[in-house]
Amino acid sequence: MIIAVAVLGANVMTTVEIEYCVPCGLLDPAVETQRELLETFGRGLDGVRLKTGHGGVFRVAVGDELVFDKAEHGNEIDLDLIVEEVDSRVAADA
What is the pTM of this model? Predict the structure, then answer.
């Protein structure tokens, strides 16, 4: 017996996770990034989750894909780059 399942009109939603260093005081940049992503992509995102971390971390992942790591970008948080990287992933999922 073969069972076929079809999903019609299913929307693939994108979740973004921002991991930030609590002791380093990176909450404000994390919230600013979260706000910018939500304002820019609105309902195109399923959500933007903040995840606490340590050791100077500030990473942004779209789904399971790391799209920004402060340690790899000269320890600067580049909001424009983050939005651009998320945009390319959201467009790909649409």
Answer: 0.83
Per-residue pLDDT of the chain (94 residues; tens, 9 = 90+): 444 433 333 445 689 999 999 999 999 999 999 999 999 999 899 999 999 999 999 999 999 999 999 999 888 999 999 999 999 988 665 5
Residue 75: DSSP 8-state: T
| CATH code (residue 59) | 3.40.30.10
Q: Specify if 2 maps to a domain.
A: no
Q: Going along 38-82, which residue ranges are E strands?
A: 45-53, 58-62, 65-69
How many domains does one find in the chain? 1
